[in-house]
Amino acid sequence: MKRKFNFSAGPSTLPVQVLEEIQREIVNYRGSGMSLIEASHRGAEYEAVHNECIENIRTLLDIPANYQVLLLGGGATLQFGMVPLNLLHYAGEGSTADYVISGVWAKKAHQDASKLGKTHIAYDGASTNYTTLPENISMSESPVYVHITSNETIGGLRWVDWPDTGTVPLVCDMSSDIMSRPVPVEKFGIIYAGAQKNLGPAGVTLVIVRDDVLQNSATQLPAYLRYSVHAENNSLYNTPPVFSIYAMNLVLRWVKKQGGVRKMQELAEQKADLIYSAVSESDGFYTTPVDPTYRSVMNVVFQIADASLDSTFIEEAAKHGMVGLKGHRSVGGLRASLYNAMPVSGAEALADFMRSFATRRR
Ligand SMILES: *Cc1c(COP(=O)(O)O)cnc(C)c1O
Predict the structure, then answer these.
(1) Within a domain: residue 1?
(2) Whose alpha carbon is nearest atom 13 of ligand 1?
(3) If both were cysteines, with which of 91, 150, 164, 339 could 174 make a disulfide (CB 3.0 to 4.6 Å apart)?
């Protein structure tokens, strides 16, 4: 079977070695006579996978000891609510959380927070149609946290240097670029990410939270919504998404084997460069709306100047085994997502196709 190059924004492509390993192990897990997904989440076999997964995250992201690594359900979307529930809603009168509105995902995070407490918009990219990021953000007087989105999956832009929030916890949605570059974890109060872009199949959400933030979080909430309940129970308070965690661990082993996060960064830049070069060398046949300083290396957003060619581009690309290139319905155009598991050969194939399409259709 010839595998397609899957440029989807999420769920997204996984390393074929990981898929094959799952296939080998899914019925009879390492000679145990049953599947791991049938086994108790409190049994030795699952627990070994669970703990190795957390350990791999710690090692790969170089997470300091005063941070807890949580594996939760609900996607990044649940974190849009869980962050303000834990840190804002019960924080007392006048408490404010600051939000940087960099695009669609940041907006959604802000929307949920504003239902739960007072928020302040520290930057809003609306006037540039969310194609750039600020050099400085304008924080409120003493916010309980500042929320940013490291990589806007739909708009195709990303933070390069992290904003300095002093002693105020910086909370970051890293769903679409976690593990694609080294991150100074010590600068953040909370980092969260849904798995289905760079970490594995959908179903598990990674939350990295600093101890003092944990200690300051609300105790009035139902158990599942409290970070501290998950931290105290090593993310085994209830049944965790065992299949997703098992698969994520295989992806993390694969990342390690490839050379870790620095290697992922090097490859991501190489892949993105291939596509951005095909755009910039096209004499205006293709364009990209994003400020070059902040453009994403995970989600390359581009357009054909003659937008009526979009559907032909997508159809022809599909015939060449390249799928998932349609831009998000809210922005249109085209988008190539180049997550960790996308091989360089996939980006090369797309860049070649873009050049030949432009030559034939200009
Ligand atoms: C995909 C995505 C989300 C939503 O994640 P779910 O796991 O589907 O809830 C949130 N933020 C960003 C930046 C994303 O890319």
Answers:
(1) no
(2) 175
(3) 150
